[in-house]
Here is the input.
Amino acid sequence: VQLQASGGGSVQPGGSLRLSCVASGFNFSSITMAWDRQAPGKELQWVSDISSDGTHTTYTDSVKGRFTISRDNAKNTLYLQMNSLNPEDTAEYYCSTPSGFRGQGTLVTVSS
Here is the structure.
């Protein structure tokens, strides 16, 4: 099982980023997937998840209306579109499976 996240970077407050996560080694299209994040010095936080067919999504309150999770099962890829970023969104972002497996994350830094 492999999960490789990418797309992080440094942006100013109000900016946008699109994260991607390519999955391999399991039946990606059959399971719910999620994005988690861990800010410096803080615990891991669940951000969002999406059903196997992409029709149902949920978000933590702090990102509702700003982040959009999506997936392309043909490409075994999970996405997170992040808009109106603020410094509190600074964290390492991971994609994860229901069993709690997380691959390499991608760092998002929001700073002026």
